[in-house]
Amino acid sequence: MSQRDRDIIHRILNGQPSAFAELVDAHKDKAFTLAMRILKNRADAEEALQDSFIRVFKSLQNFKGEANFSTWFYRIVYNVCLTALRKRGEHFLVKLDDEAFKSEIVADEINPLQAMESEELQKILDIEIKRLPANYGAIFTLFYVQELSYDDICSVTGMPLGTVKTQLYRARLLLKKNIEKHFSSGNVAQENLLKGQKL
User: Fold this and answer.
1) Residues with Cβ < 8 Å from 2, sequence gap 6 or more?
2) Is the dihedral of CA 29, 122, 170, 161 positive or negative?
3) Spatial distance between the Cα atoms of 94 and 117, rounded to a whole number of angstroms
4) pTM of the model
């Protein structure tokens, strides 16, 4: 856990509830991104985030500090969003591990957000990340945006490691496929640029 989070939580638990606003400011943006990836609706994501922060405030005294605060918090956000999906009559689909996919997953993931030299490609990437199915978008966001480890993602989602890696691998494949659709076969320069991103 970061020293900043530790200090803020200590102040809150020692009679300075106003410090909670600092905790909100430190984590609201990434948490909102995760909620949006799952719920695909700004109003629902904002409501889920408010609900999550209320739960955090009420439960903060139970946080033992054994894990990162962000991992514990994202777990709450994740569960609140899944509950919101169920209320909408939607399901968060997680397929069982696929051995064929497992065998293709490389240990060192390549960050698809690195070396983005094309403004156009960056815009397309942003669009396609938002279009990822909720189950893929959540894992992708936790790994690349929140920069959580595989173990932390397992803690947040409750998924086994193999499933997390499979979901992330499929998200990357789908993202690569959808981005490639934006480039015509006649535009060699753009195609070469896309291949150079190593998605």
Assistant:
1) 68, 69
2) negative
3) 34
4) 0.62
